[in-house]
Amino acid sequence: MIPTVEQLRSLNTEQLKEVANDVRATIISTLSSHPGHLASSLGTVELTVALHYVFNTPDDKLVWDVGHQAYAHKLLTGRADRFASLRTYGGLSGFPKRDESPFDAFGTGHSSTSISAALGMATASALQGNLKRQHIAVIGDGSMTGGQAFEALNNAGVSKANILVILNDNGISIDKAVGGLSHYLTRITASPRYNRLKEQVWQNLNRKPGQRPHRKTISLLQHATFFAKTALLGGSNLFESLGFRYFGPIDGHNIDQLTEMLQRLKAINGPKLLHVVTTKGKGLPPAEHDPITYHAPGKYEANTGRRLANAGTDCPPRYQDVFGETLTELASDNPNIVAITPAMLTGSSLNLMKDRFPARVFDVGIAEQHAVTFAAGLATQGMIPFCCIYSSFAQRAYDQIIHDVALQRLPVVLCFDRAGLVGEDGATHHGAFDISALRPIPNLTIASPIDEQELRNMMLTATHHTDGPFAIRYPRGTAVHTQWHTTMHDLPVGKGVCIKEGTDVAVLTIGHVGNDALTAASEAEKQGVNVAVYNMRFVKPIDKQLLDNIAAAGFRHIITVEDGSLIGGFGSAVVEHFAQTSPQTLSYTTCLGIPDCFVSHGTVRQLKTDCGYSETDILKKILEK
C-alpha cells in the first residue's frame, strides 16, 4: 500500500526505498493498460519520495515543470485509489492541476514555466512575512532550454527569494536533448576530476544535519567551486554566474543522498540549484533502453514492457506520419526545403526527413519563439522552411509569427500539428485557439485539410506560395484513407469545393471534421433531408464567391462546423461575410465548434459531444426545422 505524505514522513530511509519500489511498480502496472507518460515518471520516483519526505508539502510549494514526471507525486498525495482513472473522461488529469489537489501548487502542461511560478510564490511568501516556506521547482534539462526558464533564472538569481531549483538531468526531453546546455551539463556530469572531488566533498558532508562542517570540508568546497569554474568549465559556472548557489551533480536514484542533500539545502537561504542525474524510464529495461518510444508508449505488457501491437497496416496512417513522409518526398525534389521543430522531432514525424536529409532538419530544443524566427531567417535567403509546432505550443510564438514572419511577408510554412481537440492530454494541449489567433494577422494564408490526400496537396501548394506565410493546421491521430500515396497537385489558394450536392441544408466545414459532416449528411438523407456539404479548405482568404453562392441558393439552414474555438474562428469568418453581403442569412445560420471554455480530458469523441459538434450533434442540427 502506498502511504500518504503524512505517513511517509514517519518512515526511515530504508523504508523509503520500499515505498519507491511500490510507487514504481504501480506506475508500470497501471500504465500498461491505461496509457500515459511513462518514462518521465519512472525517472523521478526516488526524487519525488525524497521531496515529500523532506519538505512540508503542501505548505512548502512544489512545482513540476511540464508535469510529465508527476505521476509518483499524484500517487503519494492522496490519489492512489483513483490513479487508474488517469487521463480518462472525468478522471485524474495527466498533469498537475490546482483544482485537483492542494499538493498541485501550480497547473502545468507546457514546459519551462516552473522557475517563474516558484519565484512568484517565493516573492509572495516574503511579502506576506512567511520566510520559512520553501519553494521548489523541478525542471528537466530539456525544459531548461526554453527561453522562459533562462529569463526566470536571470531574475531569480539576483533576488533574495527562498527558491530551490532542481535540475533533473536525464539527457532527454521527449527526443534526445539538443543544444549548448546539453553539452554543458554533459561536461559537468562526465568530468572524472570533478566527480572525484565531489565524492570527497560528499563524504565529508555525510554527517548528521545541524553538525558544523569541518574546516577541511569548507576547504574542499572552495576547491570544488574553483575546479568547476576553471579547470572543468574554463570559466564561471553558468548557474553561479546567474546568482545561484550550485550543488551537485548527485545520483537522482539514491534516496540516502537525496534526502541528506535536501535536508541541508533547507537551511540555506536564497536561490539554490541542485543538479540531479536520473535515468528516464528507470526500472523498466525497455524504457531505459528506448526512452523516446517509452515517453508515451501506449499499452504494453507490465511484466516485460513489451509494447502491444498497434492497428494493422490496412488502417489509415496518422496525420503526422503522412506529413513526415510527404515532406521527405517534397524535399527530395527541392533542395531548398528545410524543416524546423522545437523538440518534437519524433512526435511530428520529422525524424523521417532527418533520416534522409540530416543536414536539412533542425531540432532547436524547446524554443518555439526561436524556431519561428529561425525559420524567418532561412526564408530571407531563399530557403523554404517548414516550421512544425504543436498547435497549443505555437501560442508561445505568436509575436514572432506576427512581427518576424507576417509583417515581412516571408514565405514560411507554419505547420500546426495536433490542431483541434487532442483527447487525453486535456486543456493544456488542445489546439483550440489557432484559427482565432491567426485570422487577424495580415499577409497570412490559413488552410486545413479534410484528409491526408488534401494535406499532401496543401504542402505542395505551400512550397509554391511566395506571397507571405502559409499556415496548415491538421489534427492528431488517424487520417481517412488507406491508399494515400496519391500524386500531388496544387490547390487554388482561397477556394473551397462542394463535396456533396444538396438543396435543403448546407453544411460548411474546415478541416478533418468535414468527414463527420459527410457522415451526418448521409444519415440525414435516409430521413428525407437533402444536405449539401462544402469543404472550404481555407479560412483565410475565405472563398467569398462560394459563400455568396451558398447564401443565394435558398437553403433553409446553413451550419458551420470547425474543430476550434467558435469565438473568432471559421464560423465567425463566415458570419462576418454574411453580415456584410447577405444579412438575411444570419437568422438561419448556426455555428458549431468549441465553446467559450477550456475543454477537459477524455477521448476526442467524448469531448466533441461535450462541445456539441459530434456527428450526432451535426445530424440533430441538420434535422431541426
Quick take:
Helices cover 41% and strands 14% of the residues. The protein is of the alpha/beta class and 625 residues long. Strand 16, helix 23 (570-581) and strand 17 form a beta-alpha-beta unit.
Task: Please tell me about this protein's structure.
- With 625 residues, the protein is an alpha/beta fold.
- It has 3 domains: 5-285, Rossmann fold (3-Layer(aba) Sandwich); 319-473, Rossmann fold, CATH 3.40.50; 497-623, Rossmann fold (3-Layer(aba) Sandwich), CATH 3.40.50.920.
- 41% of the residues lie in helices and 14% in strands.
- Strands 7-6-8-9-11-10-15 form a 7-stranded mixed beta sheet, with helices on both faces. Strands 1-2-3-5-4 form a 5-stranded parallel beta sheet, sandwiched between helices.
- Helix 2 packs across helix 4 (45-54), helix 16 (368-380) packs parallel to helix 18 and helix 22 crosses helix 23.
- The N and C termini lie far apart (58 Å).
- 52% of the residues are buried.
- Rg: 27 Å
The major beta sheet can be summarized as: 7 strands, mixed
Number of helices: 25
Could you tell me the CATH topology label of the largest domain: Rossmann fold
Could you say which overall geometry the principal axes of the C-alpha atoms support? globular
Provide mean pLDDT, rounded.
Answer: 91
Q: What is the fourth-level CATH superfamily of the largest domain?
A: Thiamin diphosphate (ThDP)-binding fold, Pyr/PP domains
Approximately what portion of the residues adopt beta-strand conformation?
5-15%
Overall structural domain count: 3
What is the second-level CATH architecture of the largest domain? 3-Layer(aba) Sandwich
